[in-house]
Specification:
Blueprint (H helix, E strand, L loop, with lengths): L3 E4 L5 E3 H9 L6 E3 L6 E8 L10 H13 L2 E5 L11 H7 L3 E5 L12 E3 L3 H8 L1
Parallel strand pairs: 5-6, 6-7
Antiparallel strand pairs: 1-2, 1-4, 3-4
Length: 130
């Protein structure tokens, strides 16, 4: 989530506002601080989101799979649905009986099994349907 930062060396997680406050205070590239808040492991901080090539957190993936298999509706927004394991959530939701709505400018491998495919700009579609 963008609300947290994570150290790429030691895995320490901190609220993102703490890191942003350090930047506002003049630290151009804050390094990871240890639990005491004064020493550093020297690690690079990034938002606690998954970057391309990084592995998903196993607990997060398991939670997403449970949610997909028991949901009533899965909205796939702005995704090609070609990168696994996240792309596997669409068929998992369908197998669980969910409706599948894909909002993407380009075709996806799941368009044929979707209940609806919307190709208009996401910024126009989402406000109209939520």
């Amino acid at each position: 989530t963008i609300h947290w930062s994570v150290c790429m060396s030691c895995g320490d997680r901190r609220p993102m506002p703490e890191v942003l406050e350090r930047v506002r205070a003049g630290e151009p590239d804050p390094a990871c601080l240890a639990a005491d808040g004064t020493t550093t492991c020297g690690g690079i901080l990034k938002s606690a989101t998954i970057s391309f090539g990084q592995s998903l957190v196993p607990e997060d993936l398991a939670r997403a799979e449970r949610a997909a298999s028991s949901c009533d509706l899965l909205l796939a927004v702005g995704s090609t649905l070609t990168v696994f394991p996240a792309a596997g959530l669409a068929p998992l939701a369908r197998q669980g009986g969910a409706r599948l709505v894909i909002i993407n400018a380009e075709p996806t491998p799941y368009d044929d099994v979707a209940d609806a495919v919307l190709t208009d700009p996401i910024g126009e579609v989402l406000p109209a349907i939520v």
